[in-house]
Amino acid sequence: MSEPALEIDRFSLSLGGREILKELRFSIAAGERVAIIGPNGAGKTTLLKCLNRILRGGTGQIRIGGRPLDSYRQFDLARRLAYVPQAEARTAPFTVRESVEMARYPHLGPLSPVRPQDLAAVDRAIEAAGIGPLSHRSLDTLSGGERQKALLAAALAQESDILLLDEPTAFLDPSQQTEILGMLGRVHRERGTTMLSVTHDLNEAVTHSNRVIALREGAVVFDGPSDALAQPDSLRRIYQHEFVIGVHPRTGRPVLFAE
Q1: C-alpha to C-alpha distance for 16 and 107, rounded to whole angstroms
Q2: Given CB 3.0 to 4.6 Å as the disulfide criterion, which of 46, 47, 164, 177 pairs with 83?
Q3: What residues pair up with 27 in beta bridges, in sequence order?
Q4: Ranges of H-type helices in the chain
Q5: Per residue in 185-211, is it b (16+ CB within 10 Å) or e — as a string?
Q6: d(CA 238, CA 229)
Q7: How confident is the prediction along the chain (259 residues), in pLDDT tens digits per residue?
Q8: Which structural domains are found in the chain, ordered by start?
Q9: In sequence order, what E strands does 31-117 have?
Q10: Could you give the C-alpha distances from 64 to 22, 57, 129, 160, in angstroms and in order?
């Protein structure tokens, strides 16, 4: 039996004297596509930042590919997982292609030139994200949706085993959301990438993930197949709110509405 891609064993984290994450315990198999949901302040983004070592400390254990997170050098960790933060207005003064090329740093030495295989990986990532026509545009000229695609392309160029996504469709219009989710679906199918995605969109979680983990006040309050989320008791326990559950007229999948 192969090692899980990611394991969290009784992990807790306190910031500013407040316990943000409480005794988290779950594992994610290689190739799973998992949504992390929960109300504001539940600790979802904090969890991703702990996995990517942006936030350090805490008690318990986090293991990536069977190895303790703390045992990785940063370059080695970047080969195992890539992180896509929430898109924001601030950008660096680089073109799209330059920013995607910089994501190849885990595969290069400090003074190593970009190699043909790196350029090929960049080309594949730009094609997968559908941003070829934007390659020579400056990041600060892009729309929110275009900028999000550039961030995703950079993560894909990293060619990591695990992709951590913090609200990848937030602030995007429906057309852009569909494009991003379609791209992630193709990457998941074709590359077998393990994906852990924070989202506030419950229908996105149900439709585009194999499994859902819900946090409330820093603790896991639901962990199961995405279809199992569509139960009034489960949703009430997570959000302390009532929901109406319908059926999508085309797909037959559950559709969730807050009352």
Answers
A1: 36
A2: 164
A3: 7
A4: 44-51, 74-80, 96-102, 116-129, 144-157, 174-191, 202-208, 232-239
A5: eebbeeeebbbbbbbebbebbbbbbeb
A6: 10
A7: 578 999 999 999 999 889 999 999 999 999 999 999 999 999 999 999 999 999 999 999 999 999 999 999 988 999 999 999 876 655 678 899 999 999 998 888 667 788 899 999 999 999 988 899 999 999 888 888 888 889 999 999 999 999 999 999 887 888 888 888 998 999 999 989 999 999 999 999 999 999 999 999 999 999 999 989 988 888 999 999 999 888 888 888 888 988 8
A8: 6-258 (3.40.50.300)
A9: 33-37, 59-64, 67-68, 81-84
A10: 19, 16, 26, 12
DSSP per position, 181-200: HHHHHHHHHHH--EEEEE-S
For residues 41 and 219, the answer to whether their CB atoms sit within 8 Å is no
CA dist 66 and 62 (Å) reads 9
The whole-angstrom separation of Cα 217 and Cα 38 is 9
Nearest Cα to Cα of residue 6 among 48, 56, 65, 49? 65
Lookup: tokens for 36: 């992390």
Here the tokens at position 168 are 């990848």
Stated as kind and residue range, the H or E segment containing 224 is strand 219-225
- Residue 252's contacts (CB-CB under 8 Å, 6 or more residues apart) are none
CA 257 – CA 192 distance, rounded (Å): 31
